[in-house]
């Protein structure tokens, strides 16, 4: 994985959100931290074209997300903070199969990958459930499974533990350890990020630190005092 940002700025109307960010992200596990409103979610949405840069360039494994959004979304699997923004079908199995069928995957292969995705997250019991009956934590796991069955090369998760209880947070942590894909995780759960390879600290739309967790998380905690 190689995600490169060169002098990237983003604004919403007249309000600047990100300021002249230059980054190279290539470690296996990368955490992104910052206060609410610091620009974390905007930053990661650049990676699959959900947000275009106002200026500067973004490349994901050499792909320009703005010019080639379909290509980059095959590369980057994005898990939203709110799973209701991601779940589109009424039944769990249908939702996991939705993206696969849109990509032309055969019905038999889609069914196999859905079964494997449910098993991978240990949520086979949810297969026949109506999505609107799920708890927030269950919806988050279904949204993650729907991304994983697409077999993206890079996984991006925007505050994935927000709706999870302790048991499910631990399950998600163990799962992340087993995934071959590089992962970029936005989180306020600092303990969860302590074993990552790299941490990027965002403050008021700027990268103020990027280092190993021990250094970067200490820097972030100091900013909050």
Quickly describe the structure:
The chain has 225 residues and is an alpha/beta fold. Helices cover 35% and strands 26% of the residues.
Would you mind describing this structure in some detail?
This protein is α/β, with parallel strands linked by helices and 225 residues long. It has eight helices and nine strands. The strands form two sheets. A six-stranded mixed sheet has the order 5-6-7-3-8-9. A three-stranded antiparallel sheet has the order 2-1-4, with no helix packed on it. A hairpin with a 2-residue loop joins β1 and β2 (15-25). The longest helix is centred in the middle third of the chain and has 14 residues, at 107-120. The radius of gyration is 17 Å and the shape is globular. The model has no long low-confidence stretch (mean pLDDT 94).
Number of E-state strands: 9
Span between termini: 35 Å
Label the structural class.
alpha/beta
pLDDT under 50 segments (min length 5)? none
Figure out the total of helices: 8
CA-atom Rg in angstroms: 17 Å
What does the overall shape look like?
globular
Strand order of the largest sheet: 5-6-7-3-8-9
Order of helices and strands: EEEHEHEHHHEHEHEEH
| Helical residues, percent | 25-40%
User: How large is the share of residues in beta strands?
Assistant: 25-35%
For the sheet with most strands, the description reads: 6 strands, mixed
Give the overall pLDDT as a whole number: 94
């Amino acid at each position: 994985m190689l995600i490169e940002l060169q002098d990237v700025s983003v604004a919403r109307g007249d309000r600047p959100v990100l300021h002249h960010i230059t980054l190279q992200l290539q470690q296996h596990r990368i955490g992104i931290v910052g206060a609410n409103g610091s620009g974390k979610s905007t930053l990661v949405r650049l990676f699959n074209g959900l947000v275009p840069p106002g200026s500067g360039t973004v490349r994901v494994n050499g792909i320009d997300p703005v010019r080639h959004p379909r290509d980059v979304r095959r590369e980057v699997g994005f898990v939203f903070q709110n799973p209701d923004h991601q779940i589109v079908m009424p039944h769990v199995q249908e939702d996991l199969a939705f993206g696969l069928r849109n990509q032309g995957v055969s019905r038999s292969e889609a069914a196999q990958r859905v079964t494997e995705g449910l098993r991978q997250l240990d949520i086979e019991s949810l297969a026949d459930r109506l999505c609107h009956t799920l708890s927030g934590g269950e919806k988050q796991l279904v949204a993650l499974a729907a991304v994983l069955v697409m077999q993206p090369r890079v996984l991006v998760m925007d505050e994935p533990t927000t709706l999870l209880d302790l048991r499910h947070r631990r399950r998600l942590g163990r799962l992340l350890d087993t995934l071959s894909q590089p992962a970029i995780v936005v989180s306020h759960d600092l303990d969860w990020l302590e074993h990552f390879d790299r941490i990027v600290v965002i403050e008021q739309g700027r990268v103020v630190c990027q280092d190993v967790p021990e250094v970067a998380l200490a820097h972030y905690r100091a900013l909050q005092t």
